[in-house]
Amino acid sequence: MPPDAARRSDRSRRAILVAALELVEALGYSRLTIEAVAARAGVGKQTIYRWWSSKGPLLFEAFVELGPVERDPRPSGDLATDLRLELRATVEELNERRFDQVCRVLVHEARTDLVTLLLTPRRVRLEERLRAGQRAGEVRLDVDVAAAADLLLGPVHQRWLLRTAPLSGEHADAVVDLVLRALRG
C-alpha cells in the first residue's frame, strides 16, 4: 500500500530522518536497523515501513533532505581560482563523515552513480565557469566543456570512491593545474 501523505506527521518524519542519519553514522549501514531508527525517533517501526520500504530509500530521503549543505563559492573572475574553489568544495563535501558514510551506502544500495547525481549542481557550475573561461579567452574555444568538467571531477570522485590516496585540497589544486594546462594548450 503506497504511503498516505495525509497520515504523515512532519515532526515524526523529520525525527525518523535525523535518527537514520545519526545511526548510520554511528553504527554503519550493516548494523543499522529499522527497529533502532524507530526507537531513536520515538515512533513505531510500522510508521517507518508505511513510508519507506527499507533502510535504503529511508537513507536516500534523509540524505537528500538533511545532507551536507552545498557550498557555492562566489566566482572570483579568475578561472583557475574558481575551478580550485569548486574542486576544494567538492573535496570538503566528500570528506564530511556523514556524507561519506551515507553516500557510500546509497551507491551500494542503489547500485547507481548517486555521487554524480548528488553532485550535479557542482558539475553544472564547473561547466558554466569553463564556458566563461572560453568567452574570456582563458580556455580554447574548441574544448568540449562537458568533457573538461569530467576531467576535473573524475579524479576527485575516483580518489574518494576507491580510496586510492588521501582526498585533499592539494589534490584538487593539482587536478585543476593539469586540466588547465591542457585546456589552454
Descriptive tags:
mainly alpha, single chain, Arc Repressor Mutant, subunit A, 10 helices, Tetracycline Repressor, domain 2, 185 residues, 0% strand, elongated
Count of DSSP E strands? 0
Distance between the termini: 59 Å
Question: What Rg, in angstroms, do the CA atoms define?
Answer: 20 Å
Helix proportion = over 70%
SS content category: mainly alpha
**CATH fold node name of the largest domain:** Tetracycline Repressor, domain 2
Total domains, how many? 2
CATH class of the largest domain: Mainly Alpha
| Largest sheet properties | none
Instruction: Please provide the ordered H/E string of secondary-structure elements.
Output: HHHHHHHHHH
Task: Report the average pLDDT across residues.
Answer: 83
- How would you sum up the global shape? elongated
Taken as a percent bin, the fraction of beta residues is under 5%
